[in-house]
Specification:
Strand order of the largest sheet: 2-1-5-4-3
Structural class: alpha+beta
CATH architecture of the largest domain: 2-Layer Sandwich
CATH topology of the largest domain: Heat Shock Protein 90
CATH superfamily of the largest domain: Histidine kinase-like ATPase, C-terminal domain
Radius of gyration: 40 Å
Length: about 675
């Protein structure tokens, strides 16, 4: 007896006791009160189960015609399980009639519910809701006059299974051979009583061979004793579980089994519907893996956002440090002993600038600005950081080629490529080992390109990274550049590193060759196209040109004090008139007083109260000829949200010195 039946039976017994006790005098009155208290307690239990029970529950009042015949009913309450099973919400059901919710309901069911509400006789039956295409098992009883309550469960699947078994199994050999699922009948001793052809095929046996087997001949998850116990416990309600089956050839596959027990010919048989779920399990595992990779990608994105926030503050500090250092160096004689100390401060600050840019490049947050590069210089600048990444157990051999052709790309992208390749090499080595980084020139002809898909004829700078790690098999090499593909465990890699390398190389018109064998290490050859035009225009100079000067009026808006002060000193030293403001409100006030004289606005992008872009627009509305330069220490993704990286917008990233500021100001004013 299930929960709803036990509750109903208890309530009915108590109600009958109350009716009996009302006829037995004073003692009966006392007993009646006790019984009524018990009823109230049962009602409390009922209300608790109302919300928690897995079966659907509905409470209705009956609607009769003028002759007292039931013609409809109205919903007074439904439980959450009702909503889940029927897909209908309480706010759409309560207060509505049964026929409004289920307009196709047959009259006989209204009569059945009406009989329960009017007579108090409970009912247990099955009914079909044609609108839902669902078969319900229903128990109805009367909680109050002219009302009925019913619990119901979805038995569609069990009814289908019963119908299928009734149609398919009559005697030995009568099974639906067209079924895509395997069907097997097991007797009480675990021996195959009957099986369809599909099940024999799933296990790799002939229909004749499978009749000689026992269930433990193929099920590997349970012992013989456990299987016999399970067979003995299966009843008409059946069971549903997953297990692992062994085929005749020794291979395994995952299977989902639905069982029902029944008596046939005087003996108990267990009817099993078996479905191969190997592909489904694999798909579920892949989804879990993708979810884990997505979680790791989110973590990496969080690291990137953290790096961006640190970079903003660090870039502001570095701007002040570098600029104050530059001012001090200009204020003292070259032979002054403090000059050497200032040079060291400037050197360390420049190293900090490079470190910040490299960190942002690894987080893919740096502003991309392709320039002509000497690849040997770029690699030499990052070697120290690479050695920190891979640790002291792995030695790096740096073998720069002579007269290596220049390439045009962003220097931070070279940093990303090398960082990802060296970290992968470190993990492949897993201890003491060696890593070699080499550069050279190479030219590819048509025959080479025909044999190497993705290659294009022409001159290339070749960057080669070789490690003596564990190597990779052919299948891994084929998938190595796919996003989220990783050979590392959960939490150890995102599968985005090599995809990033591939994307950078392809973005810059190059291609990659990979050579690897298990136990033999790995070689990456990265080919980047030669920037020939740059060689004819390169100028060799040993004397830095003087920064350009001017006499225009500039409105400078910067909330970081050190940046504002040093930039003002630089500009005034170059001949400009500078109006400095620490926030947009002060800047707009200064602009109102000097609007006709201001030729250029230099403003931080993100400031308290108002963005630099918004403030620039307000000034442009007042003076359309005013020009703008945006400065920021924030990362590229944050700046892009402000519209500052759009084409035609003048942007100067922090940190910057006097010369960079002077050139940018003159460039903007002269255009």
């Amino acid at each position: 007896m299930n929960v709803r039946q036990r509750i109903h039976a208890k309530v009915c017994r108590l109600q009958r006791s109350i009716r009996t006790l009302t006829t037995v005098g004073p003692l009966g009155g006392a007993l009646q009160k006790r019984a009524e208290a018990a009823v109230r307690q049962s009602e409390v239990t009922y209300r608790m189960l109302f919300q928690e029970m897995q079966n659907g529950f509905a409470h209705n009042e009956i609607i009769c015609d003028s002759q007292g015949r039931p013609i409809n009913s109205r919903y007074l309450a439904i439980n959450p399980a009702f909503e889940r099973i029927t897909g209908k919400k309480a706010e759409d059901v309560v207060g509505k009639t049964l026929l409004e919710i289920f307009p196709g309901l047959e009259p006989e069911w209204i009569e059945t519910f009406g009989k329960v509400a009017l007579t108090g006789e409970p009912a247990h039956f099955e009914m079909t809701a044609s609108e839902l295409g669902v078969c319900f098992e229903v128990t109805a009883f009367r909680p109050a006059p002219n009302q009925y309550a019913c619990t119901f469960s979805d038995i569609t699947e069990s009814k289908k299974a019963e119908a299928a078994l009734a149609e398919e199994v009559v005697r030995r050999g009568i099974l639906v051979e067209q079924s895509s699922d395997g069907i097997v009948v097991i007797d009480h001793e675990g021996k195959v009583y009957e099986a369809n052809r599909r099940y024999a095929e799933m296990l790799g046996y002939t229909p004749e061979e499978i009749l000689q087997l026992h269930v433990w001949d193929w099920d590997t998850q349970f012992t013989r004793e456990e299987l016999l116990e399970m067979i003995g416990q299966v009843d008409a309600a059946g069971a549903h579980f997953e297990t692992l089956h062994r085929r005749k050839d020794g291979t395994f596959y995952d299977v989902e089994i639905s069982t029902n027990g029944a008596m046939c010919g005087g003996q108990k048989l267990v009817f099993c519907v078996c479905r191969d779920i190997t592909e489904r399990k694999q798909a579920a595992a892949e989804r879990e893996e993708l979810q884990a990779q997505f979680t790791q990608a989110q973590k990496m994105d969080s690291v990137g956002r953290l790096a961006g926030g640190v970079a903003h503050d660090f870039n502001n500090l570095l701007t002040g440090i570098l600029n104050y250092t530059e001012l001090c160096r200009e204020a003292i004689a070259p032979e002054h002993p403090i000059r050497a100390w200032l040079d060291e401060i400037a050197c360390d600050a420049e190293r900090s600038v490079r470190l910040t840019r490299q960190l942002l490049a690894f987080a893919r947050k740096q502003v991309i600005a392709p320039t002509v590069l000497d690849i040997n210089d770029s690699i030499a600048n990052i070697l120290t950081l690479l050695r920190r990444l891979i640790g002291e157990d792995i030695t790096i051999a740096w073998r720069p080629g002579s007269d290596v052709w220049p390439v045009k790309m962003d220097s931070s992208q070279i940093d990303q490529i090398l960082a990802n390749l060296t970290v992968n090499a470190r993990d492949a080595i897993g201890g003491v080992g060696s890593l070699s980084i080499e550069t050279s020139n190479t030219t590819f002809n048509d025959s080479y390109c025909a044999a190497h898909p993705g290659a294009l004829r022409g001159d290339y700078m070749q960057l080669t990274v070789i490690d003596n790690g564990c190597g990779m098999d052919r299948d891994t090499v084929e998938h190595i550049f796919e996003p989220f593909f990783t050979t590392k465990g959960v939490g150890e890699g995102t599968g985005l590193g090599m995809a990033t390398v591939y994307g950078i190389v392809k973005q810059n018109g190059g291609f990659i060759n990979v050579y690897s064998e298990p136990g033999e290490g790995t070689t990456f050859e990265i080919h980047l196209p030669r920037c020939a035009a740059a060689e004819s225009t390169q100028l060799v100079t040993t004397i830095a040109p003087e920064p350009p000067r001017g006499n225009e009026t500039i409105l400078l808006v910067e909330d970081e004090k050190s940046v504002r002060i040093t930039a003002r000193i630089f500009l005034e030293g170059l001949g400009y008139t500078v109006l400095a403001a620490e926030d947009p409100e002060q800047a707009l006030s200064l602009a109102a007083q000097h609007l006709d004289n201001i030729e250029l606005l230099i403003t931080d992008v993100i400031m308290p109260g108002m963005s630099g872009r918004h403030m620039a627009q307000r000034l442009s509305d007042l003076r359309p000829t005013i020009k703008h330069i945006f400065i920021s220490g924030f990362t590229a993704d944050i700046i892009a949200q402000q519209g500052v990286l759009e084409e035609g917008v003048n942007f100067l990233p922090k940190p910057f010195g006097r010369d960079a500021l002077a050139r940018k100001v003159r460039e903007v004013l002269d255009t």
